């Protein structure tokens, strides 16, 4: 299944996992679903993103978070296990307005 990572997005640090498949125990079948991370996102270290999950544009996923569903609200901080909305982020944040991929 497809894993999509948007423009100017950072997968930070180490040990983040994108797990696009699981086993349906009842059907005894492997199930695979897409994972989407939007443009200008920041995924903190040691995060897990499960199949069927999505992080919208201009969002931050806090370190050690578990993203297990698709969110739609932009300019948000999501975090926790499982991830939930923690804060609204300003569209004026410098990270969201970069014209180059790297961060100084």
Order of strands in the sheet with most strands:
2-7-10-12-13
Supply the number of helical segments.
0
Bin the strand percentage.
35-45%
CATH fold-level topology: UDP N-Acetylglucosamine Acyltransferase, domain 1
Q: Please name the CATH architecture.
A: 3 Solenoid
Number of strands: 13
Largest sheet: 5 strands, mixed
Low-confidence stretches: none
Q: Rg to the nearest angstrom?
A: 14 Å
* Terminus-to-terminus distance: 34 Å
**Overall helicity:** under 10%
Average pLDDT for all residues: 96
Q: Any overview of this molecule?
A:
- By secondary structure, the chain is mainly β.
- The protein has a single domain, classed as UDP N-Acetylglucosamine Acyltransferase, domain 1.
- The protein has no helices and 13 strands.
- Strands 2-7-10-12-13 form a five-stranded mixed β-sheet, with no helix packed on it. Strands 1-6-9 form a three-stranded parallel β-sheet, with no helix packed on it. It has a three-stranded parallel β-sheet with strand order 3-8-11, with no helix packed on it.
- Strand 4 and strand 5 form a beta hairpin.
- The protein starts with a strand and ends in a 16-residue tail after the last strand.
- The model has no long low-confidence stretch (mean pLDDT 96).
Task: Give short descriptive properties of this protein.
about 100 residues; mainly beta; UDP N-Acetylglucosamine Acyltransferase, domain 1; five-stranded mixed β-sheet; three-stranded parallel β-sheet; elongated
């Amino acid at each position: 299944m497809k894993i999509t990572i948007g423009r100017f997005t950072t997968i930070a640090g180490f040990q983040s996992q994108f797990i696009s498949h699981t086993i349906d125990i009842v059907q005894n079948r492997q199930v695979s679903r897409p994972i989407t991370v939007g443009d200008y996102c920041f995924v903190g270290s040691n995060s897990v993103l499960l199949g069927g999950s999505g992080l919208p544009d201009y969002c931050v996923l806090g370190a050690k978070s578990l993203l297990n569903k698709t969110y739609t609200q932009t300019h948000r901080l999501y975090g926790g296990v499982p991830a939930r909305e923690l804060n609204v982020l300003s569209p004026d944040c410098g990270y969201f307005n970069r014209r180059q991929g790297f961060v100084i």
